[in-house]
Design brief:
about 140 residues
């Protein structure tokens, strides 16, 4: 199984805040593609977190998580700050996250990824390049 163009399109819509397009494309994706979509989200999260925080430290991660949670009451409720910080730190340290279940990780990956991309203010070309890089990593994991 590999990441599809539709999965990339849905991810692009999600990261651009285009909920209508994201929902429309997501409704068309079949259940069999969930593994590839999950791999894409995880790969994109790892790429984004490593790029953003690898030169920083724990304080930078804590500040970022606080900023994302402060954007709305829904985000404050959806994001467990300790889990979010640990997931980000695990991308470039030896932080152990084995105790965090897959659904919780996936939920946090998606929200935090959107926060990282929003703060990075990527151009369309930069976002396309980022998604291409993430797709290649996800496809490697799926092989």
């Amino acid at each position: 199984m590999k990441v599809t163009d539709d999965q990339i399109a849905s991810m692009r819509a999600y990261l651009r805040g285009d909920v209508e397009t994201f929902d429309r494309i997501s409704a068309q994706l079949d259940a069999a593609s969930k593994e590839a979509r999950g791999a894409l989200i995880t790969a994109a999260f790892f790429n984004a977190a490593e790029r953003t925080f690898k030169d920083g430290g724990r304080a930078e991660v804590i500040e970022f998580v606080g900023r994302v949670r402060a954007r709305s009451a829904d985000l404050a409720q959806s994001i467990d700050p300790r889990i979010a910080e640990r997931l980000i730190l695990a991308t470039f340290t030896d932080e152990d996250v084995e105790d965090v279940d897959g659904k919780t990780q996936g939920d946090h990956f998606g929200i935090l990824l959107a926060g990282i991309i929003a703060e990075a203010q990527l151009s369309d070309a930069e976002l396309n390049s980022f998604l291409d890089e993430s797709r290649k990593l996800a496809d490697k994991w799926l092989a």
